[in-house]
Write a structure and sequence with these properties.
This protein is α+β, with helices and mostly antiparallel strands. It has 2 helices and 3 strands. Strands 1-2-3 form a 3-stranded antiparallel sheet, with no helix packed on it.
Amino acid sequence: MEHLSDKLIETRKQSKAPEDYLKKEDLSQFKESSSFILHDGPSAGILTMDVSGDDYVLSGGRNGDAVLFDI
């Protein structure tokens, strides 16, 4: 397993990000438009998230809840 991990890490180091990826300077222009508490409680935290185009965001939390946003 460690050998495979080392091999994958080396492969990723040789890869370059696509030209159309946002740059750090571009991200600084983003502003928060609203906020939501997705997963709360003692075991709060997001375990997984999936975005479907410009329509939906699904978030799975450590608390066992799934939250679906219709954007």
